[in-house]
Amino acid sequence: MLLVLSEEHKEHLGFLTRLDSAVAGELGRLALEFLRKGANAKVYEGAARKLNVTSDVVQHGVEGLTYLLTESSKLMISEIDFQDSVHVLGFSEDLNKLLLQLYLDHRKEIRSILGELTPELPSYHSLEWRLDVQLASRSLRQQIKPAVTMKLHLNQNGDQTTKVLQTDPATLLHLIQQLEQALGEMKTNHCRRIILQPAFPGQTHVPTLSPWGGGGKVVQVQRSNFKEQLARKLQVSLLVVFQGLK
Amino acid sequence: MELSEYVQSGLQPLADPGCFSPRAYTVLLQTAFQSLLDTQADQAALDHPDLKQIDPTVLKHCHAAAATCILEAGKQKADKSAISAYLEDCKFDRERIEQFCTEYQKNKDTLEIMLGSIGRCPPHITDVSWRLEYQIKTNQLHKTYRPAYLMTLNVENSGSGSHTDVNFSCTMEQLQDLVGKLKDAAKSLERATQM
């Protein structure tokens, strides 16, 4: 696929023909800096004075080069297509080679920068969990109510948010079953045919049990002389659930 | 069981056959349990014909006292002897105590469930929905070819009953990590049953 450059774009890039390779290389570096960190007016002014042109011309040149590189990276055009697109500008052979090298060396980086612009949901970072047993509340004494409390860490736009959530044993098992089904989908022939990626590596997980403060009358299981009583009471509620799902 | 002056003075007319006939006592007892446990309880439950002869203020006081007594018994998980002892102190006769205890026994489990559900807890996960998608291109980047899972955790907030779902995306590796951690939690639960 060929890039179609507008007249204005060609005009801005026309500036490059008047430069020798070293300076053109420098301009290429400026274009990449522009992508990574934004415009730097002082540097453009300095370059403009050295080359005896206005800083506007330098800026347009840099922007034009940047746009050329981002469009090429976005569409992931092949070497030949890139060369053909640039040929239209009537640059020297050296300059063409320089631009091609610039494109090939940096297109992965440019694509990852462009990738950050996609609209995104918060993404999963990690999960901490904790097993709790509610013993009493203001409205009911002498309870034994097991629950799993979780802290879900999510990333969004570089910020990390955490959500504290809770679930009961039956729902936990249901969640595991549903999510394993989801994972299983990736291994079906249908998905394998469409998703053009090599097999995913296995993953070993280190369980992390991290106690952290919680509110209310919830007590973490600690004393051993309580364990037998708890085990007996839990057996009734939990074993029924496990047997039901096996 | 210890209850306030207000409750004790409300229970006194209930012990008195002159104030509450046996039929009226039965009806009031049933009404008290119903108004606590039946979510669709009629607001005009006290408008029963058998309760017409009793002064409305007294009736309301007795109903409130009976309901409080029931709730306190439920909260403390009181057994029959504790309830009987307390009602005896309020001068209830054998028959009325028996009736109260029978009615309480009948409704004990429902009462406990209701009391246990009151209270605050972190948002409770009830279900999960997932979607496997394959991204082909965005307006900034073509040929991305990236599979991802979109997860929705259906969450209920205690009390308000509102649903604020948690949405997030993850890669296959991240989902494997998540499932691994949840399985560890489940194994830990299973171990707790064998303590």
UniProtKB/TrEMBL annotation, chain A:
PROSITE patterns: COMM
Segments crossing the lipid bilayer: none
Domain COMM: 123-190
Span of the signal peptide: none
Pfam families in alphabetical order: COMM_domain (PF07258)
Listed name of the protein: COMM domain-containing protein 2
